[in-house]
Write a structure and sequence with these properties.
This protein has 10 helices and 8 strands. By secondary structure, the protein is of the alpha/beta class. It folds into 2 domains: 157 residues, 3-Layer(aba) Sandwich (Rossmann fold), CATH 3.40.50; 94 residues, ProC-like, C-terminal domain (N-(1-d-carboxylethyl)-l-norvaline Dehydrogenase, domain 2).
């Protein structure tokens, strides 16, 4: 691993989903060789492997090459520990990309283990700028950590360290700021569509909200009827919503009022 030029790494990818697709593509673009893609569904492995010259698709961990420099496990979180136990013990660096799985889960696979966690949402068919994404690394040894940092550096200049406890907080922050916000946008889209409008009408509002939150901080940026104490508007909104959305509206309204009362 030390003697091989970083941009000519031999990489085996375990997983074929959204994160695996984007990261393997970025590593290949940086000059690394994707030598194998492993997925329980061979057709899925082939779909990703076919993007890279000379890359083999396999559906068994036992078929992984034993001479790769990096084994990148990019799967659903609850599969990582099982994969580490069932894959061959290898000399190369074994890394996962999860925000919530501890580093220790990889110990059965290699003495050289790491986490390379991108704080970003990925969809296979939606382009993303990898060089704008922060990556957070952790590793079992100083040598493994330096190597993980260098791999992450092939994808982005924004490389930081985070142990498993800090990475869990980062993951929670990602769920709150991305997944939960996106669900609210989904409900917003339904309400707008029901009134004959497209979701695009709130795009300037969303963009302005994000810009302001970044510039002055989300607490200072808060506006709306909860901030104004406008109970008539709040009650009218709740009365016009379906029960599940009304409950979300009520809980968030109470949380905003409580948060700003504390200040």
């Amino acid at each position: 691993m030390e003697d091989r030029a970083l941009n000519s790494l031999r990489i085996a990818v375990i997983g074929s989903g959204n994160v695996a697709t984007h990261l393997s593509g970025g590593l290949a673009a940086a000059g690394s060789e994707i030598v194998c893609v492993c997925s329980p569904t061979l057709a899925h492995a082939r779909r990703l492997a076919d993007r890279f010259a000379g890359c083999h698709a396999v559906d068994s961990l036992a078929s992984l090459p034993l001479d790769a420099d990096l084994y990148l496990i990019s799967t659903v979180d609850n599969a990582v520990a099982t994969i580490a136990k069932e894959m061959p013990h290898v000399a190369g660096l074994v890394a996962h990309t999860s925000g919530s799985v501890p580093l220790a889960a990889l110990a059965p696979a290699s003495a050289m283990t790491a986490v390379i966690y991108p704080l970003q949402t990925f969809s296979r068919k939606v382009a993303v700028r990898l060089d704008d994404i922060p990556f957070f690394t952790e590793a079992s040894t100083a040598e493994a950590h330096a190597f993980a940092d260098r791999v992450a550096g092939l994808l982005s200049p924004k490389v930081y360290h985070a142990d498993s406890s800090h990475r869990k907080k980062l993951h929670i922050a990602g769920v709150l700021s991305c997944n939960f916000a996106n669900y609210l946008w989904d409900r917003t889209s339904d309400i707008l569509n029901g009134a004959g409008y497209s979701f695009d009408v709130v795009r300037p509002l969303i963009e302005a909200t994000l810009r302001k939150a970044v510039e002055v901080g989300p607490h200072a940026a808060q506006t709306g009827p909860a901030m104004r104490g406008d109970s008539a508007v709040i009650d009218s909104h709740i009365a016009s919503l379906d029960p599940s959305t009304a409950e979300i509206y009520r809980i968030l309204t109470e949380a905003i009022i409580d948060s700003h009362k504390k200040q």
